[in-house]
Design goal:
Amino acid/polyamine transporter I, 66% helix, mainly alpha, Recoverin, domain 1, 1% strand, single chain, two-stranded antiparallel sheet, elongated, 2 domains
Length: 564
């Protein structure tokens, strides 16, 4: 690129949208988050993870996975308070790295969340035999999962209020039942407390533990799933970070505590049948501790809880194509909001159809690994977003998070390093899944999104140019500050005045806006100096400063920012 050329257009960063109604409070945030986790993570994964680890110390893998999640959760809490709009991680990545990265990440996130929701419905079918024995009839497991999927999609179209009501009851009952079952097991089942920490409990050691932690990582996807529906959260500056961190703490305690008791109270061999891990480990635990009635009760709760998990999964997954459509990276129909229910119905239906394909054609173990792999990679990128945005925030002054990550940048660096380690330990399935997702994103972007997306000065470009071409970086920084200060007059996007304003108000800075821009670029200049400087920079004397006058004033020495 020739020196000094600006090869992008200015695009306002939309941080908040009122397309969807804000109706979710702090406890709704926690409930939706927990309902996205406390399904397959407890009712299906423990036996699969135990076999993967090669020992009953699998509870520790949940703790390690939570430690890797923590930096990403903190980063998402910061990013969410700066950009509280639908799309969550997709929005953070697209606003930081641009539409190409955004398309790849958005489709990858959509795939990972629908995989996790499909995993819940596949797990639901593992407990179906209990219902069959009660009713004396036989179900086709996949057909039953598909019928439930149709119901879940319909509820999502009707709206999040109904989801909240359903999930509140289901999660409360499930958590109380599981905690009571663990207490009963501790008092009556004569548990072997040393088995989950004794010799051979952790398989082949740290290598096996890291690999299993990567496998169960998908259990924590719901910790930050609420960021995908941030546009529907009341007081997002407070409720998003609190909800994310509360959910992580509660889920970690529940996962580690319940799985520890499952392994201590019941011999691990009971969770294996014909050399394969049983997909209904909670029935095995409840039946061994409390007898057939308690086992059946646990199975019914497993079905209800994983249905609740699928509800939350589709809710979050559908918001990614919705947000991408608003950025012109996917067809406009996916942006359409149902006038009666105020939900993105086409996005929800499309997500449901994709889940149906997963249920029909993918085995449960592969679904769990693929979902975990996608999630880990997104956590890595999200941590990097905070590093880039903090570095570029002087030029990109729209980045003003209400909550800021403690111990920055150490928190993000540890999160990236931990994620890379887990990806390495997970092996080729995670890499194959990432490659497939990347290929899909590239095809969609170059065939559809590229011609509709405008080249932007992204924070990533700002940081990269700062390192490779400092002179060009300074010019682009001034360009960005000029536009960000000059666009605050513009009516909101939804307003009818918006297009008229663009045509009749060319980009320029008034005296007040010029002073605002110079306070960012040259903060040491006094107010009266800036007033005099404004008239000196206004070469044509028309009372406003256009972009050429502004940039030339720095290049010809009228403004000296060398000591800023």
């Amino acid at each position: 690129m020739p020196p000094g050329v600006i090869d992008f257009v200015y695009k306002e960063v939309e941080l908040i949208s009122d397309t969807l109604e804000r109706k979710l409070g702090i406890w709704s945030v926690v409930i939706i988050s927990l309902s996205a986790m406390l399904g397959s993570g407890l009712f299906v994964l423990p036996a699969l993870a135990m076999l993967d680890l090669g020992g009953p110390g699998v509870w520790l893998a949940y703790v390690f996975a939570a430690l890797v999640v923590l930096p990403g959760a903190i980063s998402k809490a910061e990013l969410g308070t700066a950009m509280p709009t639908s799309g969550g991680d997709y929005i953070y990545i697209e606003r930081t790295y641009g539409p190409l990265f955004g398309t790849v990440a958005g489709l990858g996130l959509w795939a990972s969340f629908l995989l996790k929701a499909a995993f819940a419905l596949i797990g639901f079918s593992a407990y179906l035999w209990i219902i069959e024995s009660l009713l004396g009839i036989t179900f086709n497991a996949k057909f039953a999962a598909l019928v439930l999927l149709v119901i879940v999609v319909a509820i999502n179209v009707i709206g999040v209020r109904l989801i909240k009501k359903v999930q509140t009851v289901v999660i409360a009952i499930s958590v109380l039942f599981l905690v009571a079952l663990c207490i009963w097991a501790a008092l009556t089942a004569d548990p072997d407390w040393m088995r989950p920490i004794g010799k051979g409990a952790f398989g082949d050691g740290w290598t096996s533990m890291a690999e299993t932690a990567a496998f169960v990582f998908v259990s924590y996807a719901g910790v930050t799933k609420i960021a995908a529906v941030a546009e529907e959260v009341k007081l997002p500056g407070k409720n998003l970070p609190r909800g994310i961190l509360f959910s992580l703490f509660i889920s970690t305690v529940l996962y580690a505590g319940i799985v520890y008791m499952m392994m201590a109270a019941v011999d691990p061999s009971a969770y294996v049948s014909n050399g394969e891990a049983r997909e209904d480990p909670m029935f095995v635990f409840a039946n061994s501790v409390g007898g057939p009635v308690i086992g059946i009760t646990a199975s019914v709760l497993a079905i209800l809880t994983m249905t609740s998990m699928a509800l939350a999964g589709i809710l979050a997954a559908s918001r990614y194509p919705f947000a991408m459509a608003r950025d012109n990276l996917l067809p406009e129909a996916l942006e359409d909001v149902n006038p009666k229910f105020e939900t993105p119905h086409w996005s929800v239906i499309g997500t449901g159809l994709a889940m149906a394909g997963v249920i029909l054609f993918l085995p449960v173990h592969d679904v769990a690994k693929l979902a975990s792999g996608f999630q880990i990679m997104i956590f890595i990128i999200v941590n990097s977003c905070v590093l880039v945005l903090r570095r570029a925030s002087e030029a990109h002054s729209w980045y003003k998070p209400v909550f800021k990550s403690p111990l920055y940048p150490l928190t993000q660096i540890l999160g990236i390093a931990g994620g890379v380690l887990l990806i390495y330990m997970m092996g080729e399935k995670a890499l194959v899944g990432a490659a497939a997702c990347t290929a899909l994103g590239l095809v969609v972007y170059f065939s559809y999104g590229r011609s509709r997306a405008h080249p932007m000065l992204t924070p990533w470009r700002t940081v990269r140019t700062e390192l490779t071409n400092p002179e060009q970086s300074e010019r682009e920084k001034r360009w960005m500050v000029f536009h960000s200060c000059g666009h605050h007059r513009r009516p909101r996007r939804e307003s009818k005045l918006h297009d008229w304003w663009d045509k009749n108000h060319p980009d320029h800075l008034t005296l007040h806006e010029f002073i605002q821009a110079m306070n960012i670029l040259v903060p040491d200049l006094e107010h009266f100096h800036l007033r005099n400087l404004f008239h000196e920079v206004d070469i044509d004397g028309n009372g406003v400063i256009d972009i050429d006058e502004f940039l030339i004033s720095f290049e010809n020495g009228t403004v000296d920012d060398s000591e800023e």
